[in-house]
Amino acid sequence: MRILHIITSLYTGGAEVLIVNLVPRFQALGHEVGVVVFNGDQTPLMERLEKECPNCKVYKLGASFYNPWYIFKLVRIIRNYDVIHTHNSSPQLYAAIANVFCNKRMVTTEHNTSNRKRGNWLLTILDKWMYTKYDKVICISDQAEVNLRQHLNVETSDKSRIITIYNGIDIQKIREATPIEDLKSNRFLIIMVAAYRPQKDQATLVRAMTMLPHDQYEAWLVGDGECQDVVEKLIKRLEAEDYVKILGVRTDVPRILKTADVVVMSTHYEGLSLSNIEGMAAGKPFVASDVEGIQEVTKGYGILVPHEDAEALAKTIQQLHDDQDYYHQVADKCYERAQQFDIHDMVNNYNNVYLSLF
User: Fold this and answer.
1) Structural fold of domain 171-338
2) pTM to 2 decimals?
3) Fold of 2-168+342-356
């Protein structure tokens, strides 16, 4: 089977990591896989894809995320594949339009519980048309499916067309990774791996760090994105440069997570955070904002703190530092939860979706 994944870019992000993880596994199942990226900038994830999957055809359409001319390019590319699988808003729409001229089987993955389009009546009308053009709509969490059904007003219909398949990670790879000892200081280390996007909330973690003894605690922020400059300015304004470090994009995230003492995801909303599950798989306590998409995976295993509550986050981090019994209790529960999200299960479920289309 010839499968084409379409995404905005291969910058840092859960959907982007997912693509790079999926391609070699689908190739191992005997499929021919291609990837379209709207913004074809060379990134660490792009380099990893090209290195690990030299037989994967990568189509780089340009330097923009939202160029309508991509629709015409997509028509020519889509014709060469059996299944078209889109990720993120503009690929979802542009591919749906392009496929009007190609009539291929269409799948999309809904990666969040919300987005900036919802609430806009005109875009909602467009969404309702767009989603009807997909044979399968895969949501990455139960809450993401509930919210999408409410958005499209299809709560009681399309039961087999709109489904949930949880994201998965390579648990063994993360568990067996080795810490980066030469980077770590003697301070208690908090890691947040996330793109700098409006959806994320690195700012609350930065503020929480200012409430902890600066000689005992340190945070590393891993990722890139459009809001990085805002976070850097906040760190500078709060004079937190010594204990809040910007690491940028890293290709050794499993080793970064193993180096951490605590993994944090401060965010406004999620679909189902890969960083969440990866942090748990590293055998570290996971602390996150009490918001949709995070609650579904974390509640009862990791620790949820009120949204945008820096003081509560700081107190939680300090408790994990001070109480080793509590620390290990949370870490063990997190690892137990991570084992329920193995990437092999996700690949099998996706493959079954593709096969069901014919």
Assistant:
1) Rossmann fold (3.40.50)
2) 0.80
3) Rossmann fold (3.40.50)
Residue pair 193/257 in contact (Cβ under 8 Å)? The answer is yes
| pLDDT at residue number 233 | 97
pLDDT tier, 237 (very low <50, low <70, confident <90, very high otherwise): very high
Q: Which SS3 state, helix, strand or coil, does residue 96 take?
A: helix
pLDDT tens profile 117-129: 777 778 888 989 9
Using pLDDT thresholds of 50, 70 and 90, give the confidence band for residue 74: very high
How far separated are the first and last CA of the chain, in Å rounded? Answer: 10
Q: What is the pLDDT of residues 275-316, one digit of tens each?
A: 788 889 999 999 999 998 788 889 999 999 999 999 999 999
How many whole angstroms separate alpha carbon 207 and alpha carbon 132?
A: 43
Per-residue buried b or exposed e for 155-191, using 16+ beta carbons within 10 Å of the residue's own CB: eeeeeeebebbbbbbbbeebeebeeeeeeeeebbbbb
* Other C-beta atoms lying within 10 Å of the C-beta of residue 339: 12
Residues in CB range of 101: below 8 A, 6 or more apart: 75
One-letter amino acid of 238: L
Residue 99 DSSP class: G
What DSSP line would sit under 38-72, residue for residue? EE----HHHHHHHHH-TTSEEEEEES-S--TTHHH
282-310: buried (b, 16+ CB within 10 Å) or exposed (e) per residue?
bbbbbbbbebbbbbbbbeebbbbbebbbb
Specify the domain boundaries for CATH 3.40.50.2000 within the chain. 2-168+342-356, 171-338
